Amino acid sequence: MIVHHNNTIIHIVDGPKPALRYEEIHKAIQPGDTFMMKCELFAKENAVPTDVICEVEVKKVYHNWCELKVIEEREEVVRDKKKKRSVRIKRMEHDMSATIGQILTDSTLGAILCSPALGKALEKKTLKELLEDKELGRKLLSKGGFKCLI
Questions:
Q1: I need a labelling partner for 24 at 20 to 30 A (CA). Which of 1, 44, 78, 134 fits?
Q2: Residue 150 lies in a domain
Q3: Based on C-alpha coordinates, what's the Rg of the chain?
Q4: 148 lies in some domain
Q5: For the chain, first and last CA: distance in Å?
Q6: CA distances from residue 18 to 11, 12, 28 in whole angstroms, order as listed
Q7: CA-based nearest residue to 136, from 65, 127, 60, 41
Q8: pLDDT digits (tens, 9 = 90+) for 109-140
Q9: How many structural domains compose the chain?
Q10: 136 in a structural domain
């Protein structure tokens, strides 16, 4: 199967464990790309790292790793004077670096390219449209279990 992303062709060898070409994916990832990724972030007060599904934007691409801007959304319950309960979404930004391998294993990019079922979705929508769909990204990363060969 052939997928186009950022004017780059990505060849995917079909099978039970799809094989991807590392160089093609490295060329396809460019600054400004956004996708969902499972990141290991520290909780509020605790020094314990937790896995959080966040929106990620590529800031800069190096030889075999990328500089990323992580946008974490937290829901906070806020109570006012009349004891009404409302939920406020707080957006926090972090900087992070990840290798191409980490991006493929922990992000929607790897999940979409490595899933034979989602290969059919690529016939109707572009890869960029699938990557920008936050709900699809959260569903894919919460289930997990996608393995691919690089």
A1: 134
A2: no
A3: 17
A4: no
A5: 15
A6: 10, 6, 18
A7: 127
A8: 888 877 777 767 777 888 888 888 888 888 88
A9: 1
A10: yes
The 3-class secondary structure across the chain, one letter per residue, is CEEEECCEEEEEECCCCCEECHHHHHHHCCCCCEEEEEEEEECCCCCCEEEEEEEEEEEEECCCEEEEEEEEEEEEEEECCCCCEEEEEEEEEEEEEEEHHHHHHHEHHHHHHHCHHHHHHHHHCCHHHHHHCHHHHHHHHHHCCCCCEC
CA angle 118, 5, 110 (to 5 degrees): 45
148: tokens are: 């691919």
Q: Would 53 be classed as within a structural domain? A: yes
pTM for the whole structure: 0.74
Task: Encode pLDDT of 51-94 as tens digits.
Answer: 888 899 999 999 888 999 999 888 787 777 777 777 888 888 88
